[in-house]
Amino acid sequence: GFRVLASASHYWPLADVDGIHEFRDTHGDIVEGMVNKGIYVTEKKGVTFLFFGSYRNSCISNPEACGPEGVTFSFFWKTQDQQAKLLPASGGRVVSSGFKICSNEGEGSVEFYTRGNAMMKWKASFSPPGPYWTHVLFTWRSREGLKVYVNGTLSTTDPEGKVFYDYGDASPDLLGTEGAAPRSVSGAFDEFVIWERALSPREVRQYFTAAVGVQVLLSSTLPWSLVTTTTRPVLPTNAYQPVLAALGQHRGSSPSASSLLGHLQNVSSSLPSKALSGHTALSLAQAFLAAIEEFLLLSDWIDGPESPAVLSSLIHTIDTVLAHLSLHLEGSELPLTLEGSSAVADYAVVKMHPQSLNVSHYRFPSRGHSYISIPRAAFHGKACITIVGLLYHNLHHFFNNINPEDTRIAEAAAHRGSTISASSYLISIKVEPRPQLSHNLSGSPLITIQLSHTLTPRQYSQALNKSNRVHLYCAFLDYSNGSGVWSDEGCVRQGGDLNSSVCLCNHLTNFAILMQVVPLQLPREHQVALSSITYIGCALSILCLTITLVTFAVLSSVSTIRNQRYHIHANLSSAVLLAQALLLASFQLSPATLPCKILAILLHFFFLSAFAWMLVEGFHLYSMVIKVFGSEESKHLYYYGIGWGCPLVICVISATSSLDSYGESGNCWLSLEDGAIWAFVAPAMFVILVGTG
């Protein structure tokens, strides 16, 4: 964290504040104003000015001059303090680039301005700090906009900004309240730092941790405050330093997926049985999630046959770490709440007395539409409880095409031919000691799980198709037999719709909503009737078309037919005959196989050709009846180009762009789900429209 601070462009420690650690050199002296020896001057009126030198083209004074690296401003802030160090600074209209910090009773905000071709304004709001020292850091990049971090955690963003026409109030304060009657409030700043680059979320956390030596950070759901239990930054205990080092040893290398997974499993199974502080627990969780992120970026495991087993092993490894955190976390001051987010998941580590829970349920995460809720009645006794939760961002994408026979979901296994896919985020929670839940799903207390669905367009189309029946299961990964198997034991879906589901469960583990789309099956007598009509009708059609073609061939051999109409009839009959014959053959093939795909392409071509020759028939009749004179000249080349050439072009384009759309909809034909059917419907509708004309 102090290495991050050492990379700053400018640094003003200001006053010596208890609980906020400053950067000192090797002699123990405070480093004042890095780069250009920046200084601060306090005027008689109590206003403090920070000087960083004269840089007209600097990213600091002219944000639109920032390169892609961006800029970062950091400071500690508190309000309603009678002994304010930094009183409000007043100024005129905002006509230059820069930023201002505002506060009122219910909201704090950061406003960031650039003045290039147009005045742009970015604004992000957050909870005001109150009478406690609170760390506020914001970064700005032209392509990312404004990001505000409060106490080391991303609080709010404004990625787009907007054109700003009113260049500020008549008297904007650096720290003041907004309203009809503006009034200044007492406040203080400390540790003002500028980086001429945007810090990463990891660097923000590192600097914040070092600056406050934080061991206990109360959640944003509780009153804003920092509780520091040490006077120096807390480092991980010696027992866990080798673990953190081992987790970072693959960073930057290119290991194989199997070796990295094996490494993570070894580390998780060899965690020391030692107590760990909140800070160490947070570091351990962050290190594991960073390693998981690195694993997910590897591509050599995704499409392999072992990918489901690999993924369940990965989640089991994370569960092992969560269980370890819940068992060994200690806290000298409770409640202890550590929350954060990474590219892999949102996470929380909580330790508290059950009596301190002043609401009817504990909820993780505290915000959002996907969460787990544990009733207060499930926490018995006076012993401290530890809760560790994870809400995964992207893992559900890897759980698709699950074989129903590989699950312990009886209803899903009854539909063997219909695969299962995860249709919600994956959420996990561990509680130690375990909450006392009802064994009966009709009793209480039970945990409530609400998960928003993350349906792909194809899944949504399948679900809305009335010829399908949609089954949604509240499921979890069951590791009782060693490997992770999806099961619905001890869970029931209480309610929901296509957008979300609400589940009740009597145990804790990894949860997700699984979706299975099952085509509706016709009764046996209907199937017999349909197949009889199809076979008899197609057979009669093929017989009559064959007689027609034989008649044309016989008459053509005695040279009595030279008319173009008969050529058109013959080609139309040939296209329909071949299409009907292929249709009968397609009933004998299994969907999604290569022969089925080939037959689907041929069916597409010959049925399109039938419509194309109908179009030729219309053109020819038009030329015969309307344009009588000159209508008998040969147009064979044009007719054959329309009748066989156009369908061929359409089929080639369709097959090369979306081969998977053929033979995937339960029969050897175009898919009805992803829009591929329009490659047949649109030309056919065009022919009908022209023919009607």
TrEMBL record:
One of its GO terms (biological process) is adenylate cyclase-activating G protein-coupled receptor signaling pathway. It holds the Pfam family 7tm_2. The chain crosses the membrane at residues 533-556, 568-586, 598-616, 637-655, 675-692. Residues 346-521 form the GAIN-B domain. One of its GO terms (cellular component) is plasma membrane. One of its GO terms (molecular function) is G protein-coupled receptor activity. It is found in: Membrane. SUPFAM superfamilies: Concanavalin A-like lectins/glucanases (SSF49899). Residues 45-246 form the Pentraxin (PTX) domain. Keywords: Disulfide bond, Membrane, Transmembrane, Transmembrane helix. Belongs to the G-protein coupled receptor 2 family. Adhesion G-protein coupled receptor (ADGR) subfamily. This is AGRD1 protein. It comes from Loxia leucoptera (White-winged crossbill).
